Amino acid sequence: MLADRALANVTFYPFWLDRPDAPAPQAPLVGRTEADLLIVGGGFTGLWAAILAKEAEPSKDVVLIEAENIACGASGRPGAIVSTSVMHGLHNAVRVFPEDIAMLEALGQANIAGFLDTLDRHAIDCDAEWNGELTVAVGKENLPTLNEEYELHARHGHDVVLMNAEETRGQLASPLFEGSLWAKKNSGTLHPARLAWGLKRAALSLGVRIHEHTPLRDISDEGSTVVAATRDGKVRARKVLLATNAFAAGHDHIKRRVAMVRDRILMTEPLTPEQMDRIGWRNRQGVYDTRTQLNYMRLTKDNRILFGGRLGYFYGGPRDPRLDRTPAPYKRLAEAFFRTFPQLDDIGFTHAWSGPIALTTRMAVHFQTYHRGKVVYAGGYSGFGVSASRFGADIGLAKLNGATRPELECDFARTMPGIIPPEPFRYIGARTTMYALDTADSKGGWRNLWLKFVGKLGFPLS
Ligand SMILES: Cc1cc2nc3c(=O)[nH]c(=O)nc-3n(C[C@H](O)[C@H](O)[C@H](O)COP(=O)(O)OP(=O)(O)OC[C@H]3O[C@@H](n4cnc5c(N)ncnc54)[C@H](O)[C@@H]3O)c2cc1C
């Protein structure tokens, strides 16, 4: 009832993109052109790659093509809780690349410093608030996980504070929260569309040629160059960076290691000062909980609450977000919101949307190389790429250029995540997993065994 009422006037469109100051699209590519570097995909990875490439070598001719509009994919749709980690959090980095951890920690710090420097130099205002990340334990059974996270972060020198239930609810009042970990440095929240549009402006000012509504159809190898055929034109390029993330466009084999799942988000109307008093949240951190089927939440500049976390899978991972406008999953998400904040029973939601997550067995960015090194795919952030996309672009370009940097010798840059079964097994597996995640806690049995099996395939679910 409460959820139905709160969703009565919702618009199925990303709040972030619903702005009158959205920039006009750049003209599509029509006819033939040439470039030193072609970037495919106008999300964060593609935009960062364009800026990094131009800043490193201003004379380089860089063309970026985007199938629809800049930031129409994941980059215009996230929770946009920003972290220093480039590998989906410290825990995941240790899980997947224990040998590379010192290097990854240093690269994460350098990445966020470069990120901030670009915002500053190009005067990109994206409502960034650097108030840290709060990882909250929902239920007492998740407290051991939180303690482990604390010890791990402290061991690696992170500025973290462990809080009990009372202290946590003093930060953000929810009856579900039994404790939390506050990582204070170099993390927070921002407005992702304003970031993407600011990066687009910066890229254009550096001389990058951007063509929107220019879908790549095919790439053919012509020896020392490749030719990329688009809907209405062709680009002959010496190098190509595929920044197509969950869409996995650019080579048929990318999809073998990348599955597109969708995650859903709700946005409330702005809270009144009195409603803000009911929840506290004066330090305005970005918040994740410790569960696998997690919820995440944050405030916007005008004090709306963004509440996310309800995965969905559609057969074949189609790109059209209109498929995901059925109310049922959003109702489940709204019910989770009211369990988290029962004191906000008078709030309504204005926007609901989903976005494509590029899931891999590593849960983090990786690199695939094609056409004898002339084409590199950088993607697979698994829902954790707002700042890591700058790192993905940087390493992707370094691999394309044949650079000899020490990090390129590390496993994370040299190896690839596991293969994910194709359709129809992918669909059956994804749907079974999502059902098991929803019901494992209350019903147990085969569900836990299934989640363990999925964990053995590489996805850390239990
Ligand atoms: C719901 C949701 C919540 C998230 N929350 C967070 C968060 O809180 N914190 C965090 O760090 N990360 C979060 N993420 C992840 C983050 O948004 C992504 O990792 C990041 O935006 C990836 O950027 P990208 O440029 O690689 O991919 P995208 O932004 O998806 O860009 C890929 C682009 O390629 C284009 N493209 C595809 N095919 C073609 C083609 N054939 N020709 C030309 N162009 C093509 C697409 O149109 C798209 O614009 C979230 C993601 C989602 C979906």
Beta-strand portion reads: 15-25%
The helical percent reads 25-40%
Compounds present? flavin-adenine dinucleotide
- The DSSP helix count reads 13
Give the N-terminus to C-terminus distance in angstroms.
32 Å
Q: Please identify which CATH superfamily of the domain at 15-80 and 193-258 and 362-414 we are dealing with.
A: FAD/NAD(P)-binding domain
What would you say the CATH architecture of the domain at 15-80 and 193-258 and 362-414 is?
Answer: 3-Layer(bba) Sandwich
Mean pLDDT comes to 94
What's the count of strands? 18
Protein name: Glycine/D-amino acid oxidase-like deaminating enzyme
Pfam families: DAO (PF01266)
Keywords: Oxidoreductase
Organism: Shinella fusca
Q: How does this model look, in words?
A:
The structure is a single chain. This protein has 462 residues and is an alpha/beta fold. It has 13 helices and 18 strands. Among the domains are: 15-80 and 193-258 and 362-414, FAD/NAD(P)-binding domain (3-Layer(bba) Sandwich), CATH 3.50.50; 425-456, no CATH class. The chain is 32% helix and 23% strand. Flavin-adenine dinucleotide binds next to helix 2, strand 12 and strand 16.
Question: Could you name the key traits of this structure?
Answer:
462 residues; alpha/beta; FAD/NAD(P)-binding domain; eight-stranded mixed beta sheet; globular; binds flavin-adenine dinucleotide; FAD-dep_OxRdtase
